[in-house]
Design a protein that fits this description.
- It is a single chain.
- This protein is α/β, with parallel strands linked by helices and 315 residues long.
- It is 33% helix and 9% strand.
- The protein is built from ten helices and six strands, in the order H-H-E-E-E-H-E-H-E-E-H-H-H-H-H-H.
- The protein has helices at residues 3-7, 17-35, 87-90, 101-112, 178-187, 191-202, 210-214, 239-253, 262-266, 273-288, and strands at 41-47, 54-59, 68-69, 95-99, 121-126, 164-166.
- Helix 4 links the parallel strand 4 and strand 5.
- The longest helix is centred in the first third of the chain and has 19 residues, at 17-35.
- The chain is globular and about 60 Å long.
């Protein structure tokens, strides 16, 4: 069997009918809440300018609900559009937002940090079998080969705690947990090997800050790393500054990251940023039993002090 035939094997692909059904349901729900005046706008996805792509959309009238879609190309974490970076959207009034499971974790995190209020949102949760990975052939059905790596081991295909949930999850094929395998390989390295691993990846960084711009949790109006009086982190794309930038950002997201992997998707240099974030999340779970999830939490383990905190790491 050649590679193309394997990719098209129905037993290893996701039925496109799932996305068609979710699209219809999103349109119905969006039209209903706009017509009733429940919300002033709906944040979702619409077809992109190129075939097989999708892009964020903001719909403010019921007729516009017909342009909303859900497909494997709906990769964007729409929680970004409710942060301080997009103030003009929140001024419209109560907002409906279409959310995948990983998007919902970001919304919960933003609520816990007092950036959003639950009563100001109407959350339309979508059952999601996965989205396309970077560079995937959009002409092919969604499968292990074309799916984003994060989706292969997703545990939140069906969002909970939403105002409406649309879609029915089919039985999914077994997918190779590529990220878990890569994380295990990384943890098996010696400290020197791990340092070399990350040093090599970070050396490619252009300091374009695409990772910051796409992250829902980078909502500061002015980033500390942009300040030059005093300068916290060197801004030129040199090894020392790059290492500092990525370590600072990883620590800043520890206990907060929703695992949407948008930072890794937009990185033009293919730096495995989600691998670093997953490692931080694993450490926090093992040390403190903490995991970023669907319940808004005001403080994570790195933002509060308790007398019974584990201090065994102090040498």
């Amino acid at each position: 069997m050649n590679n193309t035939a394997k990719k098209l094997d129905p037993a290893s692909t996701i039925d496109p009918a799932l996305y068609t059904a979710v699209t219809d349901a999103i349109r119905q729900e969006a039209k209903k809440v706009l017509e009733s005046g429940t919300v002033a706008a709906v944040v979702g996805w619409q077809a992109g300018r190129r075939a097989g792509t999708a892009m964020p959309a903001i719909v403010t009238d019921p007729a516009g609900a017909e342009k909303l879609i859900f497909s494997p190309a709906c990769v964007n974490n729409l929680a970004l559009y409710l942060t301080k970076a997009k103030k003009e959207i929140r001024k419209k009034g109560r907002i409906a937002i279409v959310a995948k499971g990983c998007d919902l974790k970001a919304l919960a995190g933003l609520m816990g940090e007092n950036q959003l209020k639950r009563e100001e949102l109407h959350i339309i949760g979508v059952v999601c079998a996965g989205v396309q990975g970077s560079g995937a052939d959009r002409s092919l059905p969604l499968s292990e080969e074309t799916m984003a790596r994060k989706c292969r081991e997703c545990t939140v295909h069906t969002p909970e705690g939403t105002d409406a949930t649309v879609g029915t999850l089919p039985e999914l094929p077994h997918f190779t947990p590529a990220e878990s395998e890569e994380l295990a390989r990384l943890e098996a390295m010696t400290p020197a090997e791990r340092w070399s691993f990350w040093k090599e990846h970070f050396s490619r960084c252009l300091r374009c800050y695409a990772c910051r711009q796409v992250c829902p949790f980078c909502y500061c109006e002015q980033c500390l790393c942009d300040r030059n009086r005093p300068q916290a982190v060197e801004t030129t794309p040199r090894p020392a500054g790059n290492m500092a930038w990525h370590i600072v950002r990883a620590m800043h997201l520890a206990g907060r990251c929703a695992g949407c992997a948008e930072c890794e998707r937009v990185c033009p240099m293919d730096i495995p940023l989600n691998l670093l974030n997953r490692k931080m999340a694993k450490e926090l779970k093992e040390l403190y039993g903490f995991e970023a999830g669907f319940e808004p939490k005001e403080k994570g383990p790195l933002a509060e002090y308790r007398e019974d905190d584990d201090q065994s790491f102090i040498k």
